Amino acid sequence: MNWEKIKKTLGPGILFASTAIGVSHLVQSTRAGANFGFGLVLFIIAANVFKFPFFEFGARYANATGKTLIDGYKRLGNYAIWIYFLVTICSMFFVSAAVVLVTTGFMDNLFGLSVLWPTFNLFPIALVFLVTVSLLMSGKYNFLDHFIKIVGIVLLISTLIVFILTLINGPAEHVEHFIHPHIFDDTSIMFIIALMGWMPTAMDMSTWVSLWTVAKMKSSNYHPTLKETLFDFNFGYWVSAFLSLCFVTIGAYLIYGTGKTLPAGSVGFADGVIKLYTTTIGDWSYLIIATAAFSIMFGTCIGLFDGYARTLQRTTTILFAKNDNKETDSRNVYIWSLVILAIGSFAINAFFSGQFKILIDLATTISFLIAPLVAVANFKLVSSKYIDKAFLPGKLMKLISWLGILFLTGFAFFYMYVKFLK
């Protein structure tokens, strides 16, 4: 592949990775390692492997048709686009609230805003919403593309350094008479479902891969080959998958069995994660690590809000505009989507004030339960009925897709059984 052409293509995959690395890695993977050691590694690997085809189909479909998966859902029938629209509306406030809460924790850890405004603990949260929405209202895709690449590289390098040093130093000593937790009790199962819900990220965000791929093609004025598009996506996806194992290792080596725990609040949790880095690298690295962690979470916020706004922009255009290619009011829909998303998510944060882990687990569980619907729809759209034969997935991808649908559906029903029937 020509490097100049790769540079024109590179972006959506990195944006996907940076959005994924947020809550699922910094929070959930670290918690998995801290609470269960390496006991949940197989679940993390399984989620990454069995979800892979359905995210890849977003890039594949966009390259094959020049359109997004959302446009594809319309081709499946009005019922499909309406289901996706309603699922998005029902989940987006909880997901956005959870991500903003984590971002606020890392921002507060870095800047200490809660000390400046101790009587208004929602001020840092409101500030994150305000800055994120303002940047997206005034910015363009190119800004998002460049910003994410920079902060992603910083966190990637710092995480790899901590990961390597952690392996060299070995695991911390366990406390005497340490009892290993049960993986298959009800509480652990609830966490496993939540962990897989955003591993590497929520399945409904597979449409964002197609949205960003189409946006990249428009901004670069270049339609890449399928090989070039998939190279960009595969690079981002498997880097994020590898980093999830890095965070599990860091939690398992530095916290599991030591008697230490990660704090429950968002600010305390952020401080606990930063200390995992600084105790390994050295206190001198605090500012670099704290800045990188906040930056990647802020980048996740921007990517998340942009993804949801683009989703609402496209779905409302398809559902309610007389001409589904109409662009006249498209920008207004995008802006109003950002405002509504911010207000609704802020209300969720206010309602769940101080309940950091509950909100995170609720948002990730919702994402996991709707995953089978998205998986089936995406799989249908890469059949020969909807794209040219040259773009069809191979036999191995089809096999993994079928196994993935069974995996996601099986765990969704298992969760419902444990939660409501057991």
β-strand percent reads under 5%
* Unreliably modeled segments: none
How many helical stretches? 16
CATH architecture: Up-down Bundle
Order of helices and strands: HHHHHHHHHHHHHHHH
Mean pLDDT: 84
Structural features, described:
- The chain has helices at 3-9, 12-36, 41-65, 69-76, 78-111, 113-116, 123-138, 141-169, 186-197, 206-220, 226-254, 266-281, 286-320, 330-351, 356-381, 395-421.
- The chain has 16 helices and no strands.
- The protein has a single domain (3-302, 352-421), classed as Amino acid/polyamine transporter I (Up-down Bundle).
- It has 422 residues and is an all-alpha fold.
- The chain is globular.
- The model has no long low-confidence stretch (mean pLDDT 84).
- Helix 2 packs antiparallel against helix 10, helix 4 crosses helix 15 and helix 13 crosses helix 14 (330-351).
- 78% of the residues lie in helices and 0% in strands.
